[in-house]
Amino acid sequence: MAGFPTLSMSLVATKARRVASAIAIVSAVTLAAPLPASARGPESFADLADQVTDAVVNISAATTGGTTRERAMPQLPPGTPFEDLFEEFFKRRGQGGDAPQAPRRASSLGSGFVIDSTGIIVTNNHVIGEANEITAIFNDGTRLKAELLGKDAKLDLAVLKVKPDKPLKAVKFGDSDKLRIGDWVIAIGNPFGLGGSVSAGIVSAHNRNIDQGPYDNYIQTDAAINRGNSGGPLFNMAGEVVGINTAILSPTGGSVGIGFAVPSSMAATVVDQLREFGETRRGWLGVRIQGVDDQTAEALGLEKARGALVAGVDEKGPAKPIGMEIGDVIVKFDGKDVKSARDLPRMVAATPVGKDVEVVYLRKGKETTATVKLGRLEDGEKQANLAKDSGVEKPVARKALGLDLSSITDDLRRRYSIKDDLKGVVVTRVDPNSSAADKRIQSGDVIMEVGQESVSSPADVTKRVEALKKDGKKSALLLVANAQGEVRFVAVTIE
Q1: Which residue, of 262, 277, 292, is where some domain finishes?
Q2: Of 94, 182, 270, 401, which one's alpha carbon is 20 to 30 angstroms from that of 350?
Q3: Within this chain, do residues 377 and 401 fall inside the same structural domain, yes or no?
Q4: Higher per-residue confidence, 8 vs 246
Q5: pLDDT band at 32 (very low <50, low <70, confident <90, very high)
Q6: Residue 13 has pLDDT above 50, yes or no
Q7: Domain count, the chain
Q8: Does some domain include residue 198?
Q9: Sorting pLDDT into bands at 50, 70 and 90, what band is 100?
């Protein structure tokens, strides 16, 4: 028995030596085997940069107008001591009295890129602003005056035209939808006015929302993007433009590895419209929407949070004739799922004006499919809602959901400046410890619906809340308007 431990230790040692030898062999094989090219990354970006650099331009935009008066002469009452001295001092500096004023000139620098050899250039709208002098500066030093063909503030794009003596080097849009997180990209632009500069990085994320507008869907990259890169192209490894660099997130003002580009899949259509029409022509559904969170989904009887909740229907919009109502939840548009409220504006805007589109929406748990002919967003934005209605009840007050409620009286309309056409129940006080306070309901708001049913008196509100309690609902979905008539849905906990 005494020999077993020794034998066992000998076997263990032998096995250990064999394992070590195997590991050494595997390690040698692993070290000897080359990594896939995709894992190593490109050895150089030089060939790609040579291929596309000449299509990237610097944009100089200047606005001339008004006069410069950096220090205006102080306004002194007549007879003030030293009045003559002040006047003489400012006259000598050309900043007061009858001295001529120099024209005021403001300028900015950015980037752009040529998409048509005849002289079509794309840049950011914020690069040119309201400039009346725009110059495109090419890689060889050539400077050409540029004409503005059209611009779009929503996507921050502008299209320019120059008149070259010979065909220009141009690049094409690629398909940004094919980009994968981790793909290599390069940015070329004019950072801090230094001229053509190349930086490389990867796609860090898709579909970024940075609260810049209704169509936020940015590509995030860690390729160095700085001031002056705005309007410049983001290239894939095939030399195609997959994004237009437009913003950075930075506490310092310089690159910290978080830059954003407008995807080519969104930009290309807008660029085509600006070239052809000088303006955008986006689809318009005629609804105002908001997101659906978990609490709102529960109040609506949805199995999960999804879709876009209709918070308003334009009386002259395309959705009105098909019977769409406040409280409907749009879950599919033109055959595509609406996963969140952010998806719908992009889908509608990218759809041709006048197209017949199938829309699927939920109303009180029932799915409805309808076909709508899209209008034009730009026309819809010009329309004014002239609907007026009046009708005031006798004052009645009650409490519900942590709110003091009253029917709308002339006195309350004046006190809270409530629009004449608003109907419902006015909030006169909010319990600061209530769910309603957490959802930012405040005095002067008007409750129009409870549980997707209209209310016209405080008694209606309490009746609806009690009915929801009996149905086992944990929250009540309120349609709330502020004094100016802007409505939103709010899910408030039923206590």
Answers
A1: 277
A2: 182
A3: no
A4: 246
A5: very low
A6: no
A7: 3
A8: yes
A9: low
Amino acid 108: pLDDT: 75
Assess if residue 406 is contained within a domain. Answer: yes
CATH number at residue 473: 2.30.42.10
- 411: annotated binding-site residue? no
| 209 marked as part of a ligand binding site | no
- Domain boundary residue, one of 261, 277, 293: 277
pLDDT at 67 over 60: no
Residues of the chain above pLDDT 70, percent: 80
Q: Are residues 402 and 489 in the same domain?
A: yes
What does the pLDDT read at residue 248? 87
> Do 327 and 345 fall within a single domain?
yes
Q: What is the helix (H) or strand (E) element at residue 371, kind and residue range?
A: strand 366-373
Q: Catalytic: 156?
A: yes
Residue pair 74/86 in contact by the 8 Å Cβ criterion: yes
φ and ψ of 262, to 5 deg:
-70, 125
The catalytically annotated residue of 111, 230, 406, 407 is 230
- CB-CB neighbours of 341 under 10 Å: 18
- The yes-or-no answer on residue 206 being catalytic is no
From the list 108, 111, 126, 255, the catalytic residue is 126
Check if 230 is active-site: yes
Asked whether residue 229 is marked as a ligand-binding residue, the answer is: yes
Higher pLDDT, 421 or 56: 56
* Strand partners of residue 478: 450, 490
Among 388, 374, 387, which Cα is nearest to 287's? 374
For 443-460, the pLDDT digits (tens) are: 889 999 988 888 888 888
206 annotated binding-site participant: no
| Pick from 411, 476, 417: nearest CA to 446 | 417
Supply the range of the domain harboring residue 223: 176-277
Choosing from 152, 156, 216, 328, the catalytic residue is 156
pLDDT of residue 104: 57
